[in-house]
Design goal:
- The chain is an alpha/beta fold.
- The chain contains 12 helices and 20 strands.
- A hairpin with a 7-residue loop joins strand 13 and strand 14.
- Helix 10 packs parallel to helix 12.
- The longest helix is centred in the middle third of the chain and has 20 residues.
- It is globular.
- The structure holds alpha-D-glucopyranose and calcium ion.
- The site of alpha-D-glucopyranose has 9 residues, from loops.
Length: 510
């Protein structure tokens, strides 16, 4: 287990929207290098960079055309190496995004595999025996290539699934077992990609759709086996490298598959959305001031998973990512401050999505860009300062428009505002670094009563009390100590914490 993870706080950078250094309207790698001090200033010591590989951008770069080459619009491979070096000088780690489940249909492997002529790449993707064969239980593209067969897609139609084999074989004419040499070669090809970038200085990977490799593998037994193989490679060759999975099932991702971290997301109905996004635009979220949230639902789902996985890895809370509406679409400013107090004081390794520290808004009405669809509104350019494109780019044609509203938050105006979300985020991250008890593997004792909000938790010597409600609340406690941090108004006296509406109190117990 790489030690650095225990005190890691990640910043997710969506490269096309972060900072445009050469005025062509698209964010780029040199732009990220220029802004590393900003990232450092937030207290983040690690970055997750969304895909920067060559791609036709039908899915924002999750449709990879060349795993070994940085997309021209972002710069060159040398620029990326310079980013690794510049980041390392500032003690910042960088995880790249690894997309192992599929490629773009323009990838050279696919260009060869879809030909009628057989080759050593014929089994790199999943083709049926003939075009007349299209079992409805699979998502297939039918009759569109020279080869007499249909192929399976993993996400959008332009993303054919790579072939890691089938765990249960239901159509032996075309399904290969996982131990077929060609399927094993697919995994080796992905490992080669990992080695290439790790050798160049990357610190690991965020793994896209990590559970999607082997088909007909409901319990993810064979998929987990592949990842354990990858983990063995890392342990032996790159022991400081880290992997975080987009799996959203920590038992499987951490315990079975050997990931160091797994995102806590709202796939598979786990507890994440209960906290921040449940119901029609957040009306059933725990942090909604209306008090209709299902805290128990969250706690009963999260705590057992946390207890089962905490010795082997970290569950990662995130403020948001590039796939979901920003939390500003669900909760008011005060609630978002509490959300940040929560995310940065819980166990695991937290992730901050670019712009969430400003309370950037979800831009609901944008036309889809590069396969974003409803996600486009969370992918708009970073808002740096007053002026053209809010400092993102000097171009007249930025890749996406910035927030046009008069009161759009920017780094410049939020830094000066003592009442900002930015202030809470940076304060909480600083406290997390300061107290060992707030690090990733510090203890957690969660305190709540059945259907009741407020709630509290202890992390070693620190106690956190939350009142998300729009009315006063009290929590009885036998702890006492010094106030470390407050959001809103709260006091502790005579065995009671008195919390004003939408407030938070952190104490250091004695
Ligand atoms: C993941 C990514 C998402 C992408 C999809 C297909 O969910 O986060 O952005 O579209 O996988 O690669
Ligand atoms: Ca640019």
């Amino acid at each position: 287990m790489p030690k650095w993870l225990n005190d890691a706080v990640f910043y997710e950078i969506y490269p096309q929207s972060f900072y445009d250094s050469n005025g062509d309207g698209i964010g780029d790698i040199n732009g990220i290098i220029e802004k590393l001090d900003y990232v450092k200033g937030l207290g983040c010591n690690a970055i997750w960079l969304n895909p920067v590989y060559d791609s036709p951008f039908m899915d924002a770069g999750y449709d990879v055309r060349d795993y070994y080459k940085v997309a021209e619009r972002y710069g060159t491979n040398d620029d990326l190496v310079r980013l690794f070096e510049a980041a390392h000088k500032k003690d910042i780690k960088i995880l790249l995004d690894l997309v192992p489940g599929h490629t773009s249909d323009t990838h050279p492997w696919f260009q060869v595999a879809k030909r009628a002529k057989e080759s050593e790449l014929s089994n790199r993707y999943i083709f049926t025996k003939t075009v007349w064969d299209a079992p409805p239980e699979y998502r297939m593209m039918c009759g569109i290539c020279e080869r007499n067969g249909n192929y399976m897609v993993n996400y959008f139609s332009s993303q054919p699934a790579l072939n890691y084999g089938f765990y249960e074989i239901t159509h032996p004419e075309w399904q290969l077992p996982c131990d077929h040499p060609d399927c094993l070669r697919t995994a080796e090809a992905i490992k080669a990609v990992m080695r290439f970038w790790l050798d160049k200085g990357a610190d690991g990977f965020r793994v896209d759709m990590a559970d999607s490799l082997v088909k007909n593998d409901d319990e993810k037994i064979a998929t987990a086996k592949i990842w354990r193989g990858v983990r063995e490679m890392l342990d032996a060759e790159y022991p400081e490298a880290a992997m975080v999975s987009e799996w959203c099932n920590p038992d499987r991702a951490i315990t079975n598959a050997g990931f160091h971290m797994d995102f806590y997301l709202d796939h598979y109905g786990n507890g994440y959305s209960r906290l921040f996004r449940f119901g029609e635009w957040g009306d059933l979220a725990v942090f909604n001031k209306n008090g209709m949230g299902d805290l128990k639902g969250f706690a009963e789902e999260y705590l057992p998973a946390y207890n089962r996985t905490k010795d082997n890895g970290y569950i990662s809370f995130m403020t948001n990512n590039h796939d979901m509406p920003r939390v500003t679409a669900y909760l008011d400013k005060q609630a978002i401050k509490l959300v940040n107090a929560f995310i940065f004081t819980m166990p695991g390794v937290p992730f901050l999505y670019y712009g969430d520290e400003l309370g950037m808004r979800y831009q609901a009405d944008l036309i889809s860009k590069e396969g974003g669809f409803s996600r486009t509104g969370s992918r708009t350019p970073m808002q740096w300062c007053e002026g053209k494109n809010l400092g993102f780019s000097t171009s007249d044609f930025p890749y996406l428009p910035v927030d046009m509203s008069d009161d759009a938050p920017t780094v410049e105006n939020q830094k000066e505002d003592p009442d900002s979300i930015y202030r809470v985020v940076t304060d909480m991250i600083a406290l997390r670094h300061k107290y060992d008890d707030l690090h990733g593997n510090g203890e957690l004792e969660f305190i709540y009563k059945d259907d009741e909000i407020p709630f509290a938790y202890r992390r070693g010597s620190l106690m956190m009390f939350f009142n998300p409600l729009d009315k006063e609340a009290e929590i009885e406690t036998d702890s006492d100590g010094d106030v470390v941090y407050k959001i809103g108004d709260a006091i502790i006296e005579e065995g009671k914490v008195k919390l004003q509406p939408q407030s938070f109190l952190m104490i250091h117990t004695i």
